[in-house]
Each structure stands twice: as C-alpha cells, then as structure tokens.
C-alpha cells in the first residue's frame, strides 16, 4: 500500500478508517486468552502475519508490532488494491477493508510514547482505546500497569492484529478485552457499561478530518462533563507562580481558573472522572475545528526520520488532554 496515497486518502475521507460512526457495525468481544482457536480467526491471523513484518522501527521500540512497512508488498499497492484485485495484478490479501490497522500512525506513536513515559497516570486504571488499529496504546497501558484495557475498533481484523501484538509483547489473560462495538457517542448521557466504567480514554490519530471530529468532539465533551465537579475551597493547594493544579490523583492539569498572580481563593478546579488523551500530528480534525481550544498540551515529540518519510508533511506529534471550559464544568 502506497502510504503517501494512503495518508492523503485518509485525510480526505472519513469512510476509509477502521473506526467509523456506523451504528449497524457487527459487534465482537474477545479476550486475549481465548482468541486463537477458531478457524476464521486462524485464517485472519495468517493473512495478518503474511502481509506484515515484526517491527520496532518506531517511537516505542519497547513494543514489537506486526506492521505494514516498505518491506511488505501490500505497502506499495494503491489503496483498495489489497481486497479488490480483479485484474490479478499485485497480491490479493483477502482483507475486506483497507488495512489501516497495519500502520503505526504518528499520533498513535506519540500517544503510546507518552503512556510509556508517564506510566503512573495509567497504573491501576481501566482504560479504553478507541479506534485501536494495531493496539499499541492499549498494549502500552497494560505494560505500565493498567488494571484492565478495552481495545476498540469496528474492523475485526484490527482486533486480531491487536491481540497478536499483545501476545507478542507478553500480554495474556483477561486484562485485555477487544470489542468491535461502535462506542463513539456511547456512555455519559446514554448508559453504556463499557464506556461508563472507563477511567481513561485514549484516542490516537483519529481526528483525521472535520467530519469525524464532528462526531468525536461532542462525545468526549459529554464524557468529560459527566460527574465533573467544581470546588472553590483549594486552600490546601500550594501556590506556585504560573502553575496550574488539579487535586484529582494523577489527573494532570485541569485548572480552569487563573494562574500567575491570581488570588488562590478565586481558583476553580475541575475534577473530571474520565481522563481523555489524544495523540495527533496536526490533522484537520484538530487544527480546523474548535477542538483545540479545549485541549491541554501534555507532550510534543519530534518524529523519527523514517516516520516523517512515511507521513509526508508531519515532523512532530502532540499529546493533548481534553479539558472542560470553565462555564461547562
């Protein structure tokens, strides 16, 4: 698959990603220790293995991933050629959709790097990764001590790729669950057991255009708003000039009041039960919408040379934490 063509297509069309706002998508829930026996699963896994290579050539070499790289024939095919190959040219991979799960997108790389670097934030938490693709961020969360992780993607092949990658990195048992339910829009106002039980939501490189942003933004707003409370009494918080604070354990900066030079009594702090982290290299769904105004920058990473080459136009990727505006907390 020609990744430059793939990237351009992904930016232009919200219909070519493994996680879509499709309420009729079939649902699958699997556990890491019960995924490899079914004949269909074995077939899918065989296709994944024959079209990928095991790679550590990315920002998180601690995690080995089955990826589509320039060493793979499918990498050099046009988008769609892998599963609609009527002229017998190139390799027929047998995938029912373009294998975007086979690429470790720059936003996902940054988010996964952030998880590994700040493991205390995720330790002991229940984590949901939306649009998991290859599952790298979900795996990272488990490696740093998350209690339970739900890796979510409506492409069932992505789920098998995630399970393969998890097994490769020593993840077994029921700490990892994969689900193909469409969770965008679920939870908060609409009770959804999977979403409502999660303490952390991870979104890696999913804001690829304004259409998907229009679905994601109100959803994460609802998740962040649900159960949030505002406190005025923060007399026990030490004042550091220019700093922002949050009393919630491992919650990160969520101060929605003044900072430098402010009277401590005028500070307001949002306590958000759901932490939402977003990895993104600067795609349209972030830069051309109002989402950015509700983001707190947590980390900025320079992309390695090979990642820059495979994602022309991007040289850095950011990790953001979604926060509530002061009038909504």
From TrEMBL:
Transmembrane segments: none annotated. One of its GO terms (cellular component) is mitochondrial matrix. The lineage of its organism: Eukaryota, Metazoa, Ecdysozoa, Arthropoda, Hexapoda. Keywords: Methyltransferase, Transferase. GO terms for molecular function: protein-lysine N-methyltransferase activity. Belongs to the methyltransferase superfamily. ETFBKMT family. It comes from Anopheles coluzzii (African malaria mosquito). The keyword Methyltransferase applies. InterPro entries: Ribosomal_L11_MeTrfase_PrmA (IPR050078), SAM-dependent_MTases_sf (IPR029063). This is ETFB lysine methyltransferase. Pfam families: PrmA. The keyword Hydrolase does not apply. One of its GO terms (biological process) is methylation.
């Amino acid at each position: 698959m020609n990744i430059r063509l793939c990237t351009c297509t992904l930016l232009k069309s919200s219909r070519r990603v493994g996680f879509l706002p499709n309420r009729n998508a079939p649902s699958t829930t699997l556990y890491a220790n019960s995924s490899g026996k079914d004949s269909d699963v074995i077939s899918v896994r065989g296709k994944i293995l024959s079209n990928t290579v095991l790679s550590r050539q990315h920002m998180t070499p601690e995690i080995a991933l089955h990826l589509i790289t320039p060493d793979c024939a499918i990498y050099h095919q046009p988008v769609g050629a892998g599963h609609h190959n009527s002229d017998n040219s190139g390799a027929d991979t047998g995938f029912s959709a373009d294998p975007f799960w086979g690429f470790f997108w720059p936003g996902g790389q940054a988010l996964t790097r952030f998880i590994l670097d700040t493991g205390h934030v995720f330790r002991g938490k229940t984590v949901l990764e939306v649009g998991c693709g290859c599952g790298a961020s979900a795996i990272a969360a488990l490696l740093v001590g998350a209690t339970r992780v739900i890796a979510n993607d409506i492409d069932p092949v992505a789920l098998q790729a995630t399970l393969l990658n998890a097994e490769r990195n020593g993840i077994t048992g029921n700490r990892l669950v994969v689900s193909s339910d469409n969770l965008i829009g679920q939870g908060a106002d609409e009770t959804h057991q999977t979403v409502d039980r999660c303490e952390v939501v991870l979104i890696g490189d999913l804001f690829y255009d304004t259409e998907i942003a229009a679905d994601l933004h109100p959803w994460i707003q609802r998740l962040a708003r649900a159960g949030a409370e505002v406190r005025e009494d923060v007399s026990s918080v030490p004042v550091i000039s220019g700093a922002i604070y949050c009393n919630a354990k491992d919650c990160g900066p969520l101060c929605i009041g003044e900072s430098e030079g402010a009277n401590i009594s005028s500070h307001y702090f949002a306590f958000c039960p759901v932490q939402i982290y977003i990895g993104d290299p600067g795609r349209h769904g972030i830069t051309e919408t109002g989402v950015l105004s509700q983001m707190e920058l947590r980390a900025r990473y320079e992309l390695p040379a090979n990642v820059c080459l495979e994602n022309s136009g991007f040289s850095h990727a950011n990790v953001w934490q979604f926060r509530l505006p002061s009038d909504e907390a």
